[in-house]
Amino acid sequence: MTETLNADPAELAKFSDLAHRWWDPESEFRPLHQINPLRLGWIEQHCPLAGLRVLDVGCGGGILSDAMARKGAQVLGIDLATKPLKVAQLHALEAGTQGVTYREVSVEALAAEQSGSFDAVTCMEMLEHVPDPASVVRACAALVKPGGQVFFSTLNRNPKSFLFAVVGAEYVLNLLPRGTHEYAKFIRPSELSLHCRAAGLELREIRGMQYNPLTRRYWLDGDASVNYLVATSRPAGGA
After folding, report:
1. Numbers of helices and strands, H then E, in the chain
2. How far lies 118's CA from each of 9, 16, 52, 135, in Å?
3. How far apart are CA 78 and CA 105, in angstroms?
4. Mean per-residue pLDDT for 177-191?
5. Residues 54, 68: contact at Cβ < 8 Å?
6. Is 239 a domain residue?
7. Closest CA relative to residue 135, chosen from 151, 113, 111, 114
């Protein structure tokens, strides 16, 4: 392959090794299962999914892709980790989920192939795992139709985020496998906003996601100091 993939082989291997546990709600992926209804509801607030063509970038084992398809969207989930994709495909078959397909392809390669093809693009919990997040943002912007929407979620970079998302989640509460996140790759909202504007996307909303370890409850609010979600749109008159 001649193109240089915007992916860290160690990151791909990390999630591939856990692929068989992706759909176990009590596994290392429990947080993804718990936050998925929040993510899905927030996306639906911005664009009801029924009948839309949606791309899920960095789909992993397909937790969000599957849920969006069940809302009536035609979903393409893409990832560069082979094993999680096979798990996603198998789950769709076993669960009888209609309207979802998966491909092993980079978002940059897909952008060159299917520019302006999707009503909405989601890229959740993925930007903090790639060497060049700005490249992913540009590709997502290229893939969405004019007037369409692009959704991101990632982790802020500050001392509180390090304490909560790395020390707390991985070492104290054991919510995630140790080594899941690399603090230096976390992205401040100002940095992600800059990437979005440079890619021609307009910011619509930034929301924070919180977690109470005592009640094991997640919720969205205005505090983007740790986990946060960003809704953007491509202007209808955009190139």
Report:
1. 8, 8
2. 28, 27, 8, 18
3. 6
4. 83
5. yes
6. no
7. 111
Q: Whose CA is closest to 46, among 121, 142, 112?
A: 121
| Any domain includes 186 | yes
Q: Which residue type occupies 78?
A: I
The pLDDT assigned to 1 comes to 37
- Sheet containing 227-233: give its strands across: 100-104, 74-79, 53-57, 118-124, 144-155, 227-233, 202-212, 217-221
pLDDT at residue 76, as a whole number: 98
Strand-pairing partners, residue 220, are: 209
The residue assigned the tokens 């992913």 is 136
Look up the pTM and report it: 0.90
Residue 229 CB partners (closer than 8 Å, separation 6+): 39, 42, 124, 151, 152, 153, 205, 206, 207, 208, 209, 220
- Residue 84 token pair: 């999680």
Q: Determine, yes or no, domain membership for 37.
A: yes
pLDDT digits (tens, 9 = 90+) for 38-94: 999 999 999 999 999 999 999 999 999 999 999 999 999 999 989 999 999 999 998
Identify the CATH number of the domain in which residue 78 sits. 3.40.50.150
